[in-house]
């Protein structure tokens, strides 16, 4: 971010919730809320116009769902994908899996404390991606079992082979471990893990941690159970 405030757009159909999110985020010294949207279609228009660093996106919205909006803004159709932080009730229904496929960079429970929302925006803005700590492992396991056969198959050969150490880090990422937990498990420095994660994303040509975890399961590098 080079010291510039994180530019945020808040997309939520409940005006009271939307206003509350915007007020809390805009009050942070390192953030500025540059726009708001009350439905999915408006969200696509506002985000494409303003190109924020992070968009906070509700799943259930009129005209266009948050999932459909995310697919248009963070998926292959957009040459300059936006980082989307999806806020959901997180009942592990199909919406969550669709959001993963659509390219969401992070997920938070809708009833999560506001400090988690603030931290989540910062995490996604750094490009680190976020899965709510309360549901990460369960989500990954459930998603691995529900990936549709119709999904595009991963490449038969990795763009660039992973080293043994990078492969180990990817396996631990797929378990839902944070960088700190991986560093502790591998008895290495936190910065070393960050370097491995960065190289994994570069080699696999992936945008963020969420995509790496999905890739690990879909490619067969990791299998549920």
From TrEMBL:
<dbReference type="InterPro" id="IPR039420">
    <property type="entry name" value="WalR-like"/>
</dbReference>
<dbReference type="Pfam" id="PF00072">
    <property type="entry name" value="Response_reg"/>
</dbReference>
<dbReference type="InterPro" id="IPR058245">
    <property type="entry name" value="NreC/VraR/RcsB-like_REC"/>
</dbReference>
<protein>
    <submittedName>
        <fullName>Response regulator transcription factor</fullName>
    </submittedName>
</protein>
<feature type="modified residue" description="4-aspartylphosphate">
    <location>
        <position position="58"/>
    </location>
</feature>
<keyword id="KW-0805">Transcription regulation</keyword>
<keyword id="KW-0238">DNA-binding</keyword>
<keyword id="KW-0804">Transcription</keyword>
<dbReference type="InterPro" id="IPR001789">
    <property type="entry name" value="Sig_transdc_resp-reg_receiver"/>
</dbReference>
<dbReference type="InterPro" id="IPR016032">
    <property type="entry name" value="Sig_transdc_resp-reg_C-effctor"/>
</dbReference>
<dbReference type="InterPro" id="IPR011006">
    <property type="entry name" value="CheY-like_superfamily"/>
</dbReference>
<keyword id="KW-0597">Phosphoprotein</keyword>
<dbReference type="Pfam" id="PF00196">
    <property type="entry name" value="GerE"/>
</dbReference>
<feature type="domain" description="Response regulatory">
    <location>
        <begin position="7"/>
        <end position="125"/>
    </location>
</feature>
<dbReference type="InterPro" id="IPR000792">
    <property type="entry name" value="Tscrpt_reg_LuxR_C"/>
</dbReference>
<feature type="domain" description="HTH luxR-type">
    <location>
        <begin position="155"/>
        <end position="220"/>
    </location>
</feature>
């Amino acid at each position: 971010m080079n010291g510039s405030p994180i530019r945020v757009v808040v997309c939520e159909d409940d005006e009271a919730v939307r206003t509350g999110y915007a007020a809390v985020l805009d009050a942070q010294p390192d953030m500025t809320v540059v726009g708001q949207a009350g439905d999915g279609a408006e969200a696509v228009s506002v985000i494409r116009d303003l190109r924020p660093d992070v968009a906070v996106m509700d799943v259930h919205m009129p005209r266009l769902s948050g999932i459909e909006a995310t697919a248009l803004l963070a998926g292959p159709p957009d040459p300059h994908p936006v980082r989307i932080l999806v806020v959901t009730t997180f009942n592990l229904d199909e919406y969550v899996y669709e959001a993963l496929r659509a390219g969401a960079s992070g997920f938070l429970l809708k009833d999560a404390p506001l400090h988690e929302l603030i931290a989540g925006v910062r995490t996604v803005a750094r490009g680190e991606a976020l899965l709510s700590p309360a549901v990460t492992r369960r989500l990954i396991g459930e998603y691995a079992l529900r990936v549709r056969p119709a999904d595009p198959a991963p490449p038969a050969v990795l763009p660039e082979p992973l080293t043994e150490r990078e492969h180990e880090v990817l396996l631990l990422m797929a378990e839902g471990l944070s960088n700190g937990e991986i560093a502790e498990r591998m008895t290495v420095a936190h910065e070393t893990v960050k370097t491995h994660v960065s190289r994994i994303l570069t080699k696999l040509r992936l945008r963020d941690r969420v995509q790496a975890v999905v890739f690990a399961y879909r490619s067969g590098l990791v299998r549920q159970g």
